[in-house]
Write a structure and sequence with these properties.
heterodimer; A: 7-stranded antiparallel beta sheet; 5% helix; elongated; B: alpha+beta; globular
Amino acid sequence: MSPRSLRAAASALLQLALVCWGVGPAVAADDYTLPFSDPGVSLSYGVDRDRTVGRQLDWTGQVWLDGSPHYGRVYDQHTGVDYPMALRSDVAAAKDGTVVDVEGGFGTTQFGAFGNFIRVAHADGRQTLYYHLASATDGGIGAAVGEDVAAGERIGRSGCSGNCSGAHLHFELLTWNSKTGAWVPSDPLAERRWTTWPGRIAFDADYVRESNGGTEVIQRGQTITHWVEFRNSGGRPWRNAGTGRVELATWDPAAHASAFRAADWPDTWLATYLDTASVAPDTTGRFTFGLKGSPAAGSYSESFNLLAESVHWFDWGRLGGYYVPITVSNVPHNVPPP
Amino acid sequence: MPRSTVITLLFAGAVGTSCGLDMPTGSASTPSPFESAAASRAVASAIGRTPLPSGFPILPGASPVALADDDHGLIAAWSSDRLGSAAYDFYVDALPRAGYEIVGTYPGGDVALIRFQVSGGIWQVVSLPRDGRQRIEVRLDRP
């Protein structure tokens, strides 16, 4: 078994363990997403929720009294969540927010101190920190102070700057403690604040079915209605408004002006938005749009992909490489020959 | 229409380097890997500790350190002045080259851990800072 498949299996077991220990989905807050989009990334270490030296309380609720590192769980005095990431992997914002601090002057693998980081403030009063990033000159810092960022949007690239024993992302979720007047790390794993878990990326979809799985025959100048359904296999709900709105747009090349644009398309490259207001993970969403037979008679195809607006395109391969074969005819379709 | 289905230590490090396991440092001459491994097996056997196989990769420049008698899961340990990710990066590369399959990698801030397959079980390489230097341990697997 490969390391990656082992990590995936371990991740699944850890999730199962979490549910069994009574901190499962029923109490999930589900308001932050994982700070990356690579489905191969899994957990190295979580937050030590016990501040006593040599005594660890991991995210599953288990107490360790040996001060030793426990992979997939915790090491002593750890204040964040560590995710193994190859150098220069994409790091994404865990929630909509505004960048309030950045450091990018350390070398990508320069040892010592905090290293490079980005700090983002969120509307719920919390802040998130992304540590050990690559240097600014190496693309590690992808957002500036004052810049608004969306959940899932790339804000930098990983590295191993600062106190780092192996390339990874150290992620912290900070809560303001009004009694002490300080930011304190909380545990997003124990609080179930993820909309998605290791092994599941923020925006992902699987093809389900469409109104016509064969060739659409369109009489020249006429418009037909076509719909397609995708299963939300990502970790975030789909919406049809606001940042991250899920759209069906032309692909291959991305966002090209379509010769089959119908009057209901919002733009030359944008076929439609999600039909319904929202689609939860593991449920199916439909996209309905017109196709107009504008080109000369002949056989064509038009490719489409899903897009989370201002965030990123979906993985077209996971959509089955979705396209619609189209035949434009000069005679009405289904008219029997004389 | 779905168009398609989803596609989706350097050996030399050990050569000429003393394994030095459980052995006091400061030997006047550097034993060959074979001699070193044989010596370590003898010492390990005397105290019931699992011996390190001959040819096991060692971070260049790392010095062997004494092992605590009450830590029987510990197989070998070294100290290095190469702080940070050098040890982790070295073993991620060297273990497969030496024939050991890596079954899990867990890099972190103060700790990096690699789990790898040996005949008869799984061992760990653990890298962590200690007293201003980097300590590298090989030990039996533990959760």
